[in-house]
Design brief:
This is HEPN domain-containing protein. It comes from Methanobacterium bryantii. The protein has one domain: Four Helix Bundle (Hemerythrin (Met), subunit A) (Up-down Bundle), CATH 1.20.120. The protein is built from five helices and no strands.
């Protein structure tokens, strides 16, 4: 995908998140959607900044760190941890939704910086 396609997909997923975020019964779905959305915004940000991106999550934190994007690497790592906990452990509540949305907003701001 090119940068604009990643941005478009990220925006589409964000709309879905916004529809679900007020219902605590959808916490797992929101976490998964947030994870996918963040991948698209990170790909967009990397493509516009560096002319390259990773389409998979494996090695993404290292890829970001190699480009001095430590804060985004940490944010994405935290999102991965939360996702893993929701998927395998079922942990989380309304605070989980708030946290993943905060991380996503951080990533979106970063991706859209000039």
């Amino acid at each position: 995908m090119n940068a604009e396609s990643h941005l478009k997909r990220g925006k589409e997923i964000r709309k879905s998140i916004d529809l679900l975020k007020s219902d605590k019964d959808h916490t797992s779905s929101i976490v998964e959607l947030t994870y996918g959305c963040s991948m698209h915004y990170i790909a967009y940000g990397c493509e516009t900044r560096f002319g390259a991106h990773k389409d998979i999550h494996t090695g993404l934190q290292r890829f970001l760190r190699e480009r001095d994007e430590e804060e985004i690497a940490i944010a994405f790592g935290r999102l991965e941890t939360i996702r893993h906990g929701r998927w395998y452990g079922g942990k989380g509540n309304g605070e989980t939704v708030d946290e993943v949305l905060k991380i996503l907003n951080q990533i979106i701001r970063w991706a859209n910086e000039d």
